Amino acid sequence: MGPIPSFDVNVTTLPGSGFPVALRPGEKERAAIAQAAGITALPMLETDLVLKRWRRDGVEVTGELRARTEQPCVITLEPVFQEISQKLRTTFLPEHSALAVPVHRQDRELVLDPEGDDPPETFEGDSIDLWPFVLEMLVLALDPFPRAPGAQLEAAPDEAGEPENAGKSPFAVLQALKSKDK
Question: What is the pLDDT of residue 69?
């Protein structure tokens, strides 16, 4: 597999109406992206973005990511397919921008609003590579614990053939393990 693709956009020449970008990777590029994302396969990936100037030096990126992914089931290792349709929105600022500096209170604690927008990304020079952003958004949209339909964990049987921890609360099981160690 090769490295993930790159798509650099020069942000110094963005038109006022916005710059549309359609990213449609080929089979080899999707294989590299799948490997970078830690999934089995990426049969389809389409990203439509619009880059617009934001404030003086920044760039706002909006759009949509659509993908079909294949991952192994966490229980049976059977292939699990996921359809993703994700709205995207972020802001990029030059690394030297005063707006890129995180807000701190007087006690130097970082202030983040959990309900607010994500903090801006930063970039160097006069261009932004869009693929790392798209890869990050794809990974965040993936199911972290994909399960095949009907897949369930079964408890290991004890000496009597009964599931070892049947009917016990997780805390009772932990207490029993702690007692065994002593």
Answer: 98
